[in-house]
Amino acid sequence: MRNLAWDRKYDGYLLRFHIGATGSEDVLLAECGLKDIRFVTQEGGSVGINFKVKAHPKDDEDHGKIARRVQQEIGITLTPPDDYVEPGLFSDPVGIDDENRDPFEGSDLARDEQTTD
Questions:
Q1: Average pLDDT over residues 56-62
Q2: Could you tell me the residue range of the domain that residue 28 belongs to?
Q3: 79-108 b/e with 16+ CB inside 10 Å = b?
Q4: Count of domains forming the chain
Q5: Which superkingdom does the taxonomy of this entry point to (predicted)?
Q6: Position 35 in a domain
């Protein structure tokens, strides 16, 4: 199976670098942008996710905490913006009526339309 590149950009995320066990040393970066999102298939059925983040540390101390961990694995949390609208698979926002939508709409497997007279 080939890898999938997602040609979308997302702005307004909060990125938290988890540093240490207590959380007091964590670095928070606000108003981050995500881009170049890629899904990489791996042996055994796992999927890796790669992406780039555009962010600006608030001061030299936070920049140093991040820079000291270059080329290391580190836990992160990405939090979407408050006004986040979940996109559908094909760029359409997921609607409230999505549960009643025919998943095969537009194909030969689509439900027959029921008419009421």
A1: 93
A2: 4-83
A3: eeeeeeeeeeeeeeeeeeeeeeeeeeeeee
A4: 1
A5: Bacteria
A6: yes
**Of the candidates 60, 84, 54, 66, which has an alpha carbon nearest to the alpha carbon of residue 25?**
66
Residue 17's CB: how many other CB atoms inside 10 A? Answer: 18
Tens-place pLDDT, residues 2-37: 788 888 899 999 999 999 899 999 999 999 999 999
Q: Cα(6)–Cα(74) distance, rounded to whole angstroms?
A: 23
pLDDT of residue 6: 84
Q: Give the length of the chain.
A: 117
Taking a C-beta distance cutoff of 8 angstroms, is the pair 55, 20 a contact?
Answer: no
Task: Give the distance from CA 40 to its chain's centroid.
Answer: 14
If phi over 0 gives left and psi between -120 and 50 gives alpha, with beta otherwise, what is residue 20?
Answer: left
90: in domain: no
In a domain, 100, yes or no: no
Q: For residue 58, which of 34, 81, 32, 78 has the smallest C-alpha distance?
A: 32
pLDDT of residue 91: 58
